[in-house]
Amino acid sequence: MSKDITETAETAETAETAATTETVGTAQPVETAAGTARVTWHRAKKARLVLAVSHGAGGGIGARDLQALARTLPEHGVTVALVEQPWRVAGKKVAPAPKTLDVGWRGIWPALVRPGLPVISGGRSAGARVACRTATELGAHAVLALSFPLHPPGRPEKSRAQELLGAGVPTLVVQGGNDPFGRPEEFPEGAYDLVEVPYADHGFGVPKKAELSQEEAVAIVTDAVAEWAGSLG
Fold this sequence. Notes:
Helix content: 25-40%
Largest sheet: 8 strands, mixed
Radius of gyration: 16 Å
Shape: globular
Number of helices: 7
Number of strands: 8
Order of helices and strands: HEEEHEHHEHEHEEH
């Protein structure tokens, strides 16, 4: 395992595991070349899109933003598929190398497209990197990058901007204003949309002294994603 992946996982773990009570969905195991993954479906009654989102390197689908999307997006005609990578299903605490994460995502993809709807490929943190790296080859309709880790904390020279810029499909980045993995003003210009969650950290947590509540911060995330998904052709 690379130092870069280990460092990212250890730094992000606390932020990413902050969560509300998990929503109830239909869990589906999926066999991949990297092991058994799991997809938890939160279905819209009249779905026009599927939003598939995976977790980061230090947390699971209980992350506050993923759970909020699962609760709210089905009301907007978007079925949400919360994806657990094989390493997470196996109970491991640290993610494998990026290429292994990509293998897992590719193996999950056939289950995501089976409903016959356009699929937004998404994820938070390391999951956002996977979505960007594989979007074109998998035929993703768009990419949702939550808390994209532009660089390891304190190491802006280790930029991952090319992964984001190379997604090749409509892309929305939702980024905390105080994310140590990359603040909004650090992002380069490019063919993507970026929404800032003021005061928020990598897990979209906001301090008590912030001028908005935790609920308002999460609402910025869900409102932005709902509006953006509604604009996709």
